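Journal club prep, shared notes

We agreed each person brings one worked example of a sequence with its structure written out as tokens. Mine is ABC-type xenobiotic transporter. I'm keeping it raw so we can talk through how to read the token line rather than staring at a rendered picture. Sequence first:
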Amino acid sequence: MEDAVAQLCGSQPADPMPVWIKGHIGICFNQLVLSSIPHLIFALTSACHAGAHRRSSQCHLNPLWVCRMAVSFTASLLILTDMVLGCLFPWQVPYTVEMLCGGVACLSWITHFLALLSLRKAWCSQPRGPVTLMLPVLLLIPTLVITLMGFLQDGATSQPLHPILLSRFCLLCLRLCCIFVYLGAFLLGLRCFRPSLSLSVNADDDDESPLLTSFYTPERQHPAEDGESWLSRFFYLWLNPLLRQGARGGLKHPGDVLLLPHCLGTARICQHFQSKSSSTILRLLPTLHASFGARYYALGLLKLGAVTLAFLGPLLLNLLVNFMEAADEPLSWGILYTLGLFSSCFLAALLQNQFTHEVNKLILAVRASVLTSVYRKAIRGVGTGLAGFSKGEIVNFMSTDADRISNFCRSFHEVWSLPLQFSVTLYLLYLQVGIAFLGGLGLAVLLLPINKVIANRIVDYNSDLLNHKDARVK
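Then the structure, token by token:
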């Protein structure tokens, strides 16, 4: 690893990526960390926005949006020109890492241009577009300023002039100007007037209005979560309008909340659930597996990723502690350990949060499909086993069984993830403390009977609660 980085940066293997060289930031650290990482974030953010399905609107494209598209394309051409100069005059680009990071920067700007091109119809009435599409551009300024100072220290503008070095310096200045023009076009974008669309279920808040109204009309806005970008879904940016409305005290009626996503519509879920039945007699487990199995098992990958990243934190922390105890290791490794520790914890929290959110959505779908099927069977009077129970008991049976089936979705992934986490934890304890890890294992074994007693008490209390509910509904 050290040799590869040293060969890429043209440095010594003992310190392959020096952070500070003769009073200024090292070129390799600037290119690999301060340039490549922000450009990767820039490209990923643009790709996430470009990949989201959005509804196009019929309006004229704003000139400021065209300006941002032109700036993005121009920036990619400037970077490509700089790379061509490096290929034609390799002695003027002494470090291979500059060409590599230049390619990353060029691809990121091309990706951003394509993202703006794909979003031009969806956001033509709002010249600024999504704010998250602009924020990564700010991360590109520090590395350009540092590189610009490096060119000045290398004598790009001093006598005698070096044509290639001066050309690269001018290209870099133009790239910096492009970013400022891009930011100026974003800040000058004024939001055009758009008719306010109701996000509520009910059309009006009059006391005499009907309780149930049809809201699938052309004037209705689509649910906020549908059509949002990956970045908006990961960080729940689609909730911002609702949160702002709540901060103003505007959430006073049930109809003020956002609509459910189309995938959670009861009619759509039930139709999909009925279509997966292989016969006229609905078999619950095979139908549930056919309807939601692929999606549910795919969520296990999110759970596995969150568990894996959660264990990377202690390992990187151990490496960071060893780095602080060793005085001869280069500073760059400590910075990498710190960045890795932050990134692993951040991504683990992000994946775990997304896993919980998607499982909760799946639980809603399972509960809706099961309850609808059971109610349909009860209304049709299929079977004679209901004659011996009261209406309250029947309703409780339906609700309780649906809850148990849907809550199984929450617990199934814990069946394989908890033993995995327990085994890895014991192994890490063994690496750190040796045979003393058996003490922790013994404590975990002693806790099993206590957990069993607590679980039994919870079941008893739940049974008493259901009996009281039956008596109240009778």
